[in-house]
């Protein structure tokens, strides 16, 4: 895996972090979760921008969003007690398959 893909993976993980931080910030009304959210947002965007210097924009953006969506949904279920249903899990598998397919394609 080259540096662009590693940067994209970390950017996606930071997207998960800022999405959860956004929830914890309560609409940016809590100081430390808000600061955490802004820092992880900036890191995520900077790493995405770095990755897109060499990766196709459609692939890079879709993988970034997919990692963020899957990770946030899974952690929402595990940490926040969000519903776990077969349809939700199946949908996450479909997104993950798309991420893998995009990685293999480009």
TrEMBL record:
<protein>
    <recommendedName>
        <fullName>Guanidinium exporter</fullName>
    </recommendedName>
</protein>
<dbReference type="InterPro" id="IPR000390">
    <property type="entry name" value="Small_drug/metabolite_transptr"/>
</dbReference>
<dbReference type="Pfam" id="PF00893">
    <property type="entry name" value="Multi_Drug_Res"/>
</dbReference>
<keyword id="KW-1133">Transmembrane helix</keyword>
<keyword id="KW-0813">Transport</keyword>
<feature type="transmembrane region" description="Helical">
    <location>
        <begin position="61"/>
        <end position="81"/>
    </location>
</feature>
<comment type="similarity">
    <text>Belongs to the drug/metabolite transporter (DMT) superfamily. Small multidrug resistance (SMR) (TC 2.A.7.1) family. Gdx/SugE subfamily.</text>
</comment>
<dbReference type="GO" id="GO:0005886">
    <property type="term" value="C:plasma membrane"/>
</dbReference>
<keyword id="KW-1003">Cell membrane</keyword>
<feature type="transmembrane region" description="Helical">
    <location>
        <begin position="35"/>
        <end position="52"/>
    </location>
</feature>
<dbReference type="GO" id="GO:1990961">
    <property type="term" value="P:xenobiotic detoxification by transmembrane export across the plasma membrane"/>
</dbReference>
<keyword id="KW-0472">Membrane</keyword>
<dbReference type="GO" id="GO:0022857">
    <property type="term" value="F:transmembrane transporter activity"/>
</dbReference>
<feature type="transmembrane region" description="Helical">
    <location>
        <begin position="87"/>
        <end position="105"/>
    </location>
</feature>
<dbReference type="InterPro" id="IPR045324">
    <property type="entry name" value="Small_multidrug_res"/>
</dbReference>
<dbReference type="InterPro" id="IPR037185">
    <property type="entry name" value="EmrE-like"/>
</dbReference>
<keyword id="KW-0812">Transmembrane</keyword>
């Amino acid at each position: 895996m080259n540096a662009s893909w590693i940067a994209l993976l970390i950017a996606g993980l930071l997207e998960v972090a800022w999405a959860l931080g956004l929830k914890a910030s309560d609409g940016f009304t809590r100081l430390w979760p808000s600061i955490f959210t802004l820092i992880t947002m900036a890191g995520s965007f900077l790493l995405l921008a770095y990755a897109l210097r060499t990766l196709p924009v459609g692939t890079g953006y879709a993988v970034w969003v997919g990692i963020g969506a899957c990770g946030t949904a899974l952690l929402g279920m595990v940490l926040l007690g969000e519903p776990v249903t077969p349809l939700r899990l199946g949908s996450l598998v479909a997104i993950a398959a798309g991420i893998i397919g995009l990685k293999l394609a480009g």
